[in-house]
Design brief:
Elements (H helix, E strand, L loop, with lengths): L4 E10 L2 E10 L4 E5 L6 H9 L6 E9 L2 E2 L10 E5 L10 H8 L7 H14 L15 H14 L4 E5 L7 H17 L4 E4 L3 H7 L2 E4 L2
Parallel strand pairs: 3-8, 3-9, 6-7, 7-8
Antiparallel strand pairs: 1-2, 1-4, 4-5
Helix pairs in contact: 2-4, 3-4, 4-5
The structure holds adenosine-5'-triphosphate (ATP).
The site of adenosine-5'-triphosphate has 12 residues, from helix 1.
């Protein structure tokens, strides 16, 4: 199997009703945008890829990631990162605590972990924000922390579920560019669900529409 994310004749049904069918390969560094009306199954598709599909649904076909068949793996073993519309930062942890939570176990030792968190904050223009309470951040700052928390877990693919829709227009452009640039640098395949044609245009890749 090729590098990247492959949805190999994926079919999701609820009882007798087929909700969606998709056959697609997303190469490393490429963005595939999925559009479609409300209820067409966009979030359900992402749930199938991260491994959190509700029991009401059945799944056929396979999901491959960098040559591994991840279809039946538990979510934490898949190495797929996701960003949602809501950043979902842990409110009881500091910014640094949120990032340390995401940090891959392979980074060992207190000093090394601290350094990696500091570097991540620096990378998104938030140097020195370790002790801040997430509640005191702007929407764009929260989005950047969520992005780095996800990347620190060293995913091999990135899923985006309307991640920019809560941001105001100005921040949306900057955060979007930051997310796509990081994904390209790390050669991550990206699967993005959105209602926003501007997201699709900025991603620059192929668009599939669910009906
Ligand atoms: N846990 C669940 N159990 C049963 N049916 C569900 C469940 N979650 C969603 N559905 C149904 O599955 C269909 C697809 O839902 P989904 O959330 O994937 O759509 P969507 O395209 O993401 O919609 P939106 O654009 O509004 O977010 C809908 O008919 C929805 O009601």
């Amino acid at each position: 199997m090729a590098e990247g994310l492959t949805l190999d004749d994926l079919r999701i049904a609820r009882g007798e009703d087929e909700l969606l069918r998709l056959d697609a390969h997303v190469a490393p560094g490429e963005v595939l945008t999925v559009m479609g009306p409300s209820g067409s199954g966009k979030s359900t598709l992402l749930a199938a890829v991260i491994g959190t599909l509700a029991p009401a649904f059945s799944l056929e076909g396979r999901v491959w990631l960098d040559g591994r068949d991840i279809t039946a793996l538990p979510p934490e073993a898949r190495r797929v990162g996701i960003l949602f519309q809501d950043e979902l930062l842990f409110p009881h942890l500091s910014v640094g605590g949120n990032l340390a939570f995401g940090l891959a176990r392979s980074v060992r030792g207190r000093a090394a972990r601290r350094a990696r968190v500091a570097e991540a904050l620096q990378e998104v223009g938030l140097a020195g924000f370790e002790a801040r309470d997430p509640a005191t951040l702007s929407g764009g700052q929260k989005a950047r922390v969520a992005l780095m928390r996800m990347l620190l877990s060293e995913p091999q693919a990135l899923l985006l579920d309307e991640p920019f829709s809560r941001l105001d227009a100005d921040r949306r452009d900057r955060v979007r560019e930051m997310v796509f640039a990081r994904a390209r640098e790390r050669a991550l395949p990206v699967l993005m669900v959105t209602h926003d044609a501007e997201d699709a245009r900025a991603a620059g890749g192929r668009v599939v529409t669910l009906d």
